[in-house]
Amino acid sequence: MGMQRIVVLAGGIGGARFLRGLKKAVPDAEITVVGNTGDDIHLFGLKVCPDLDTVMYTLGGGIHEEQGWGRADETFTVKEELAAYGVGPDWFGLGDRDFATHIVRTQMIGAGYPLSAVTEALCARWKPGVRLLPMTDDRVETHVVIETEDGGRKAVHFQEYWVRLRAAPPAQAVVPVGAEQAKPAPGVLDAVARADVILFPPSNPVVSIGTILAVPGIREAIADAGVPVVGLSPIVGGSPVRGMADKVLAAVGVEATAAAVAAHYGSGLLDGWLVDTVDADAVPEVEAAGIRCRAVPLLMTDVDAAARMAGEALALAEEVRG
Amino acid sequence: MGMQRIVVLAGGIGGARFLRGLKKAVPDAEITVVGNTGDDIHLFGLKVCPDLDTVMYTLGGGIHEEQGWGRADETFTVKEELAAYGVGPDWFGLGDRDFATHIVRTQMIGAGYPLSAVTEALCARWKPGVRLLPMTDDRVETHVVIETEDGGRKAVHFQEYWVRLRAAPPAQAVVPVGAEQAKPAPGVLDAVARADVILFPPSNPVVSIGTILAVPGIREAIADAGVPVVGLSPIVGGSPVRGMADKVLAAVGVEATAAAVAAHYGSGLLDGWLVDTVDADAVPEVEAAGIRCRAVPLLMTDVDAAARMAGEALALAEEVRG
């Protein structure tokens, strides 16, 4: 086939690394990324979009490689000064280079630009080689309901749960606040409708891809696109490849297994599913649920490994297309 | 006399250095500083208050000593990153440490705090040893009217005139936009009413002290306070000690001489005036205009020199009080 049009729903680190592999696997493809904005947060009066930035920095060559998020060669002068003023929070690690991104974004939003236009402007510098769209221009904030020490319940911002609390308190519910009223950002539904294939990278199925799918219209557009939808399991051997996806899977009543995540997406949405070779015994269960399944190595140890995974996902898509 | 209550109207560098001397000269005095906010500017969506910060950093021990403004040990990572995004202006030198101040200020203003409360919060860190009040919580922006290349006129923000254009185009007018509608910040009129002496440091008489006096109520309160009002000439030997005060003096039709500046303030406001020893021949002219005048060294070469100047100003105030 000619130039493929690929739509990818992406969270942060896992999505970004998969996308880097995908670009290497199909350098001529036209890739549109629909990024999660549910973990966006206002810090120090600035709008921070961790997932969009991780994709942008990773594909644009500015990422802190080992850490997976934030900028390479980062310094922390502003953060130290804010601490000297007694201004928090101190648990979110914003570096000086990163601050500049949030300052530009906040200034543009304050001037009336929607997040999609702001993201495009930021990408004019980073040239990520994909079209990066926020899932929505509206404000959606993922909250996690946890148990308090006195036995009550309270909702905290996803970043507070994830970064400050290290996902230690059991999550009782995950709520994408504002999602029901949100509209897909300009270009999202059109990209889905024109896609040749739609991919779910090994991103968090609840707080990353799940949040994107919670924006009314996006799940339906994907299900109705009439093109192969293929996902890659973020769970390998019963635990998340990275991050703490198992914590939030429990909150939505889904077992932390490759098969259970496939079933959570469901055959109404998903046509193909890649599990890791260590989870090969899950293949029959997934296929019995009506989702084509293959077991291949799913550890993104480097860009080549990610490229091979992307190639496998596209091969499975062609197989599904039949 | 016991603990003196001193009110000082201050611009940036000159005011800050004078205040450092004043604190040394009368360590037990209760000093209230009414700071100019007419050169405040929004940069990158952040509210920057150059004069208030110069006073705060200088008295709090954080100033870049040689430069006279900005922070010591400063780095410029954020500014470089903003430039990489193509976001300007590039002519205003905000360092990383300084950015933190503006981030805190902007966040507090966004949360609804008036500038006076924000300034107090920032000073809780810097402990300047004076009560630092903005002249007003309302927005006042000093604009300078200049001639354009095609012979027309246009108004530019004071910082653009001062920093970007280095005061090169002749200033035709100086307009403190918003001053007429501004109210003195809480505490300003009360401090003036309770003062034992009021001082005008060798700050810019037009864009610093002149702007403060343009806030309705402040000039009147000073004139009616019934206590000595003593100023120090920013003009020594026919030119400004530092800065480009002569440029904006011309715009208001005032000659750049020590005597002309005293006359510009006028005997209705000013009781005493210090000129530099090189301007000793101006003393009779100033006194003939009804303002007590002495010639003393007015170069703030170090803190001790500034302290001696402050001491001379207070001595002249006592002489005026009679």
From TrEMBL, chains A, B:
Residues that coordinate or bind 7,8-didemethyl-8-hydroxy-5-deazariboflavin: D53
The protein's annotated pathway: Cofactor biosynthesis; coenzyme F420 biosynthesis
SUPFAM superfamilies hit by this protein: CofD-like (SSF142338)
One Gene Ontology MF term: transferase activity
Cofactor: Mg(2+)
Top-level taxon in the UniProt lineage: Bacteria
Keywords carried by this UniProt record: Magnesium, Transferase
Keyword Transferase: yes
Catalytic activity annotation: enolpyruvoyl-2-diphospho-5'-guanosine + 7,8-didemethyl-8-hydroxy-5-deazariboflavin = dehydro coenzyme F420-0 + GMP + H(+)
Name of the top EC class for this enzyme: transferase
Record has Magnesium as a keyword: yes
Matches recorded under Gene3D superfamilies: CofD-like domain (1.10.8.240), CofD-like domains (3.40.50.10680)
Pfam families in the cross-refs: CofD (PF01933)
EC code(s) of this entry: 2.7.8.28
Subunit structure: Homodimer.
Function: Catalyzes the transfer of the phosphoenolpyruvate moiety from enoylpyruvoyl-2-diphospho-5'-guanosine (EPPG) to 7,8-didemethyl-8-hydroxy-5-deazariboflavin (FO) with the formation of dehydro coenzyme F420-0 and GMP.
Family: Belongs to the CofD family.
Matching NCBIfam families: F420_cofD
Protein name as catalogued: Phosphoenolpyruvate transferase
